[in-house]
Specification:
Structural class: alpha+beta
Mean pLDDT: 83
Shape: flat
Helix content: 55-70%
Strand order of the largest sheet: 1-2
Low-confidence stretches: none
Number of strands: 2
Strand content: 15-25%
Largest sheet: 2 strands, antiparallel
Order of helices and strands: HEEH
Number of domains: 1
Length: 71
């Protein structure tokens, strides 16, 4: 992500790091570095994340169909 405003970029980075630390604390990811940001998903979390990804994909397809129907 490219953000030209340094204040916004700093805020976004802090927010992203906080979110990643929360996921790390829940055992969803292993946060290995924050500069640059580097993490990996734990084996325990992969099935749940795949389920969420499929739900999001289905939702996106539904929204796209609705948008195309309205044109």
């Amino acid at each position: 992500m490219i953000v030209k405003d340094e204040i916004i970029a700093t805020y976004v980075r802090r927010h992203l790091i906080k979110e990643l630390e929360d996921l790390h604390n829940k055992g969803v990811i292993i946060l290995q570095d924050i500069d640059p940001i580097y993490f990996r998903v734990t084996e325990f979390a992969k099935p749940y994340l795949m389920e969420i990804a499929l739900e999001l994909k289905e939702h996106e397809a539904k929204v796209l169909k609705e948008l195309l129907a309205n044109e």
